[in-house]
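[Q] Does anyone have a clean structure-token version of this?
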Amino acid sequence: PGHIYELLILNICKELSILTIFYQHGLSLDLSSFDPKSLFQDKSISRRISSIKKLLFFYYSFVLSIFFVKKKYRLIQILFYKNLHFFIFFFRAQQLHKLPKYGLHFIHCDFAFVYGQKDKNYLIETLNMSANNITVSGYPFLMPTDSSKDLSKQDQILYLSSAFREDGIMPITKEQEKCFYLTLLKQVEDAGYALNIKVHPRDDLKIIQNYFINHSNVRIYKNDNLADLTILSRYVISDFSTAIFYAIKYFKPVIILNSEYFKNYPFDYTEYGIGVKTDLHNLCFTLKNYRELSRSQKNSYKNFLTDFLYDNRKVSTFQTLYYQMYRILGKTIN
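[A] Here you go.
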């Protein structure tokens, strides 16, 4: 969000009097808490060339559009501010938190759906959006099915993949990824548990499955209900994946695996009292010694749900979304 190409589309919509709606996806990241340049660790020549090509395409499309719109000053203004963002990005990254992430004061979406009150406040403060045009809809959790009622299977550990190799965030080979997964399995087995892996939507399921051809104490899922997988698990292991939201909702102990590629993750759940950190080679020890959630940890889970996810069990997130969409479109619900 806030990408120059997205701002171009927003401007076109303004020119054509088309309403635009922002729907939150992913975590609310404080861009001042980490160096954004460290997020993508793949610095290969091919990756750099691909990034430059995309950037040139976006800027070419943007500059060309200036000649075809009525309010040329607005696109020129956007271009100025986004170049200012790039300057700050490369030379004063610590100041990024002062800049809006989802647009600019003078051009942003007309309406917004966000997970929690914190994100609503952010849009009001950084974009000067009207509070009446922002809906706190909550995170769209899937509902569990009847299969999750069998709690006798809680000798299982759930690992949530983030597709770091597939997305080029970590410059690792398939062989290195295989080594990681097999080490993960051994650590889990040594602690006396079976391993369930929920791969990321962008992960290649067959590749991950091939890593475990000779291993039976592991199950791999891709499109299965994450609520069910979470409820049936004793612990949930990941990094900074949004899928951890399910572990928070169902009050499951969370283990955050440290990474040699990140000094700090962009979003650190432990800063909010969620989970404990460990290295992969110490995972077995952590699993054996990590107990049930304490009262203070449960309170931290509750606070996170309230502040960031608005887990209101009385009102469906989807019901809220549909109702507000009807309101925006000027329709009446009987």
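[Q] Thanks! Anything notable?
[A] The radius of gyration is 22 Å.
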